Amino acid sequence: MSKPKVLVLFPIYNGEKTMRESLDCIANQDFTDFRAIIVDNKSTDGTAEIARAYCEKDPRFEVLTQDEHLSAVENFIFCMKYGKEHADYFCLRACDDLSSANFLSELVKALDDNPDKLLAAPTVRRVNGDVERVLRPDPIIFGYTESLAGGVVPRSLAYPSEWCYGLCRAEGGADILIRRWSEYPHAWCVASYVVAEFVMRDLAVWAEDAEFIFVEGSGSFEKYGAKTFLGKLQQRLNYTIGCYKVVHKLPDISLRTRIKLFRRLWRDSRIKTRYDLEDHFLKAMRLRK
């Protein structure tokens, strides 16, 4: 099969309950020049059978099965490397994620129209039961590099972490995605960490009319979040320092601006990780309920 313009990769492990709807969502896109690869991470449920049956009815879909079970992070990185080699643009899709019918077409247009950008990101709709929230980026994040060069540190890096599921340009963008995902030692908050460099270097473009639908309730915070004070402190430091190192890829900025940036990133790490260290300490000392 010839190289497609877009590759959609589904890193899946035991996704039989939700994957059909997610696959349908991509199959019904108004953009048709894509291939979809279901990367089965040695599932123990009916994932493989569902995947094979889907591929039989839609030749744009294909199944790859890992030889051995990988961690979620390793499987995601595998997909990123595959996307880099086999398409012009690629995106990742969890087995319970959904999107608008124009998701791919709007993101493709955004990258086509902005050859200097490496990541096209959607508007995000988070769904938790009957409650829905629509998340759009704060306009202050655009022109981040220019702001820093002028000595101004934007008040936050306010973007949805789900931007990691946006459309990535294989040339240039994939390397950032792979490196950032590989270097961060925590499963919790890795998505925000990965996207930060694209935003800080002005390499992301927002496609407002494309919508990504993220269904909450997986319990990832409870499963992967740090539990101890030292664990939370270490994760916030790793997040802050990892984001701060992006300054080495930016035009020179003053020492004063660098200090302000580090302080801003430290505060931002509290928002991204949800770790309030003062609150944790006071509760541990039984000075706060």
Note down, in words, how this protein is organized.
The radius of gyration is 20 Å and the shape is globular. Helix 3 (72-86) runs antiparallel to helix 6 (170-183), helix 6 (170-183) packs across helix 7 and helix 9 (229-244) packs across helix 10 (255-273). The model has no long low-confidence stretch (mean pLDDT 92). Helices cover 43% and strands 19% of the residues. The protein is α/β, with parallel strands linked by helices and 289 residues long. Helix 2 (47-57) links the parallel strand 2 (34-40) and strand 3. Strands 1, 2, 3, 4, 5, 6, 7, 8 and 9 form a 9-stranded mixed beta sheet that branches. It has helices at 19-27, 47-57, 72-86, 103-113, 144-149, 170-183, 190-200, 220-224, 229-244, 255-273, 277-284, and strands spanning 6-12, 34-40, 61-65, 89-92, 98-99, 119-128, 131-135, 167-169, 204-215.
Give the SSE map.
Blueprint: E1 6-12, H1 19-27, E2 34-40, H2 47-57, E3 61-65, H3 72-86, E4 89-92, E5 98-99, H4 103-113, E6 119-128, E7 131-135, H5 144-149, E8 167-169, H6 170-183, H7 190-200, E9 204-215, H8 220-224, H9 229-244, H10 255-273, H11 277-284
Parallel strand pairs: 1-2, 1-4, 2-3, 6-9
Antiparallel strand pairs: 4-8, 5-9, 6-7, 6-8
